[in-house]
Fold each of these.
Amino acid sequence: MADSGDGVNSTSSGKEPRSTLTDGPVTDPASNMKDSKSGALKKSSRYRSRSLSASSTDSYSSGSSSDEDDVSPREKIQKTEKGFTDFCVRNINQNAFGRREIEIAEQEMPGIMALRKRASDDKPLKNAKIVGCTHINAQTAVLIETLVELGAQVRWAACNIYSTQNEVAAALAYAGYPVFAWRGETEEDFWWCIDKCVAAENWQPNMILDDGGDATHLMLKKYNAMFKMIQGIVEESVTGVHRLYQLSKAGKLSVPAMNVNDSVTKTKFDNLYSCRESIIDSLKRSTDIMFGGKQVVICGYGEVGKGCCQALKGLGCIVYITEIDPICALQASMDGFRVVKLNEVIRNIDIVITATGNKNVVTREHMDKMKNGCVVCNMGHSNTEIDVNSLRTPDLTWEKVRSQVDHVIWPDGKRIILLAEGRLVNLSCSSIPSFVVSITAATQALALIELFNAPPGRYKSDVYLLPKKMDEYVASLHLPTFDAHLTELTDEQAKYMGLNKAGPFKPNYYRY
Ligand SMILES: NC(=O)c1ccc[n+]([C@@H]2O[C@H](COP(=O)([O-])OP(=O)(O)OC[C@H]3O[C@@H](n4cnc5c(N)ncnc54)[C@H](O)[C@@H]3O)[C@@H](O)[C@H]2O)c1
């Protein structure tokens, strides 16, 4: 996203940002409210910030006057034409622009829109009272409005202090939803906003939709009695899911939770297909590079690496792979890529991309050997894949040439082009296709419906994956876009395969 390095995607601890929330443990909300500093804790990137589009961050909200930005939305008295005041956004007058952004997103989110249409009569979320804490942008607005259409009442806060599209938040508030979010919240604002969503008059939430675990954390810590009344938590981020598993292990999770992050429909589409598109976009936008004939090394041939390789090979790059895992190395070989050690090729490489989820994959030693003009970037979750800190030495000069683009210059004049200071390059320099967000949003909505409607006893106080049949349903919601026609099993075939004709079609251990 073209947010000009304001820190949306930086991660202070260098751990998982993604979509996600804070990298480190969440600071206790109560103490945050007292001791808030500059919001540095929230300067982590999150995968879900993937749903921000560059155009949206560059657009209207970021163009709002600085005078206006100087006044905290908490100090403003705002109301809609209908007299609605239960919200706190930057500027309610931006609502029309936000509405247009939401309508554009709806066009590219066929799955969640189809779900909205199919289930709007049944209202499967009637009586659901959802506390939501996600990025607030055009795509998540489509999810929020779908949940309401399906019968839910919602109160919503942002899971990241930088990622809110102010005009979208205004459009949601204008439509009458209690939304508490603006771009550039302080750490204290951040917790205040979530608090406003949890604790309100005549409001006992019964579901949580979290992206990073912060709403869950606040409720668990500060409103424990309320937390015990929750029927289910749906969590999207790696970090939030990790915390839920920790809570469960410690016996502190008193409600069932769905791990949406590890749904097949999310992992495959987010990691492989989305990265396949966004790697090219990120590199083009930041460097204007021509790909044909360029030598590229991709570290890691997992889902993300495979997506990057496909895209770059398609544009005529000569692609090398590094891998630690012989299975992935064999896959890369069979796909026609040379598997090498980084040191073997590094002197001739034009572009280095890390996609391992590991640390120090590209070291100072490697960067010392790179040729002039080599582009270095990271697609993995953590900003530790490239040892960027090792470049902060007195002998090297840093020159910011564009937003998210630094030239690091050696004493002999050699320069490498470092993108997004080693943070996720696609989240920092590109946009995420709404279509991919549609898949995740549909998965989240179904997880809420499943937990909310499950008969007592189906789910215990533990962390679950969405049933495979629902993953299949999410996929099926997106097929009409492609006019894809599924073959139906005959009775004979179903019997032969031991399958139900309506699915699920694969065992849980199937890898796709
Ligand atoms: N940029 C994005 O939009 C985006 C989207 C999804 C996931 N991710 C992140 O990208 C990373 C990769 O995700 P994935 O789904 O491909 O994971 P994965 O586990 O499928 O693939 C990672 C691969 O890296 C290999 N690897 C580990 N250490 C290595 C090393 N030192 N050198 C070479 N190879 C090494 C592993 O063997 C594995 O095959 C993760 O950190 C994930 O969170 C990013």
Amino acid sequence: MFKALVSLAAVAASLQLVNGAIIRRVTCPDGNTVGNAACCGLFAIRDDIQENLFDGGECGEEVHESLRLTFHDAIGFSPALARQGKFGGGGADGSVVTFEDTETAFHANLGIDEIIDAQKPFIAKHNITAGDFIQFAGAIGVSNCPGAPRLQFLLGRPAATQASPDLLVPEPFDSVDKILARFADVGFSPAEVVALLASHTIAAADHVDPTIPGTPFDSTPNSFDTQFFIETQLRGTLFPGTAGNQGEVQSPLRGEIRLQSDGALARDSRTACEWQSFVNNQAKLQSAFKAAMAKLAVLGQNTRRMVDCSDVIPLPKAANSKAHFPAGQTRNNVEQACRATAFPTLPTDPGPATSVPPVPPS
Ligand code: HEM
């Protein structure tokens, strides 16, 4: 009788109430608790990359590049090619690392070799496939950016078997038609494309204008806020470096760069209202980006064979800035493209016209 009571107490200790559902928790050998024992090995990898890849948990250049890498690996997937009997790529399978020599030579992957070289030693050191590592590092990295959602992470991508075909990664000089068609091929609606582009709120370009590396897409590149959606709607008046670069259009702020694709998606009738809907809507930014990234991270993968290890991803801090017009900009500078709803009312930052400093290399 006493024994039975003791074992009942032990089981109860391993059960927790989460979102109203009772789930079993597992204590890993290192003392961390998770929902599934298969996730235990990820804590050591998390701590290693936070310390040694992301410089102690920053939302800096390596995080931005790691997020870009999640996309460039995953989007190497085309059901349309497969329907023509060709190899359509393995999606989020790590092929961008495993077949690095082939994929880094693709024009749209310019500059991606830097983060591949930075990530490779971690993949070699830990017991994890390249496909899992890329998405894991992206999710951990994003959690360092204030205002970000906690991204889902599923474990269990098998090793890639072939390089992705070329021409599947969108280019900043592609038309909106071409971009939406490319994303539709992998199952994303225009609204989901806009949600994915929230990634450009923690982003900078090194290669669009190579004379000004580290030039951000918004004035707050270390914060996962809605400034990107505000600033891409402002009238472009200048090039932050040289004129005439392929895939670049004028931006509204010194030190800020605008991709032709971002400027066009912000103004196209199919996407403009969705674009504007993110302005000053942090809750939508988080939920829509989280949902779209959950789809992106498993493109080409069999999720039935994967384990949900999202509880290894840290909870990000809240946003540290309020939506605003940068100093020197007002509603008069907005190129209103959404016909259905007015641009939200926002305060303008005080002081002289905003000039955005570059994201420092680390
Ligand atoms: C229409 C689709 C897209 C186009 C044309 C595009 C294009 C670009 C370009 C040209 C750059 C600058 C690269 C450089 O010069 O260093 C860039 C940076 C970046 N992109 Fe995209 N992108 C797209 C969608 C996405 C998506 C879906 C994600 C992630 C989910 C993403 C994440 C990033 C990040 C985080 C950076 C910054 C990298 C850094 O700061 O080092 N992009 N993108």
